[in-house]
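As a warm-up, study this chain.
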Amino acid sequence: DGHLNNSLGSPVQADVCFPRLIVPFCGHIKGGMRPGKKILVMGIVDLNPESFGISLTCGESEDPPADVAIELKAVFTDRQFVRNSCVAGEWGEEQSSIPYFPFIPDQPFRVEILCEHPRFRIFVDGHQLFDFYHRIETLSAIDTIKINGDLQLTKLG
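Now compare it with the structure written out below.
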C-alpha cells in the first residue's frame, strides 16, 4: 500500500512508494533523484551468491532500454562491486576499484546511495565505499530503482 510502519506500528508515508519486497524488484522513486536525497536498500545476501545488482534508471522501459544512471553490481566470484551507467543505449566505462568487498554470504547488509550535486556517494554498512560521478544530467529523471540477483530484500527507503 506504499506505506511503511515505524516502530510504533503507525503508518509513515514513505518518500518512495514500494510494493512487496520481492526480487527481482522494480519500484518508483517519487519525484526522482535530487541533491540530498538518499536511497536505502537493506537485505540479506543469499547463502551461495553469484551476484546481485541495484540500478537507478530513468523509467522502466525495456525497449528501448531506459537510461541507467547508476548500476551497482556485487560479484562474489571475484569480490568486485562494479558500477556503470548506460546513456542512450551506450554503456560507459565500468569502475570497479574498492578498498574492500563488503558483502558476506548469508549476512545482512545496508546500502545507501546518497545523491549529491556532482555525484552519487555509496555507503555500505555505514562506511563510504566510493563515489560515482553523474553521467545523466537531469537528476529528476532518475525515478526507478531495480534490484535483482542473489539476495532477499528486508527494507527500502
